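Q: Okay, next protein. This is NADH-quinone oxidoreductase subunit C from Flavobacterium nackdongense. I've checked the sequence twice, so it should be correct. Can you predict the 3D structure?
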Amino acid sequence: MSLETTAIQDKLVETFGENVFHFNQEKDVFSFEVTADKITAIVLFLKNDSELRFHFLTDICGVHYPDNPLDREFAVVYHMHNWYENKRIKIKAFINGSRPEIKTLTTIFPGANWMERETWDFYGINFIGHPNLKRILNMDEMVSHPMRKEFPMEDGGRTDKDDRFFGRTQSNR
């Protein structure tokens, strides 16, 4: 029996109502948005439902949208996989930019530990209830979160590189 995206959508809407929305099929990945305060309930439902069976958390990452309204400035994106039906889903939860935080999934998927640490390290998104939220790739002394778009991509004052060696010349700009 093939798990159809309409079945996933129907079950989610039936159970969570207006807390799940913006359903979309993007190539082979079914995506939707959720309200951030319901993320653990929704992920637990997707994992434990006898038909849905999304038992594998593939990835967690953050996205910074500095041009969005403050209540949608950051997003946490979750990718899950149902191995039985080879079905993938993407869940996006927008969070407030002045205090970016969302509940941890480490109690549901222990493997979320490192993914949440990486997201915190690069974006400063706090995962409430995480057992050890600390830097994982950047130096402990670092005070910023470098993937936020408030930081320039390159240091304009660098003198140790020549744009010609990177395929960038004045005519390319």
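A: Here is a summary of the prediction. The two ends are 53 Å apart (CA to CA). The mean pLDDT is 91.
Q: Noted. On to the next one.
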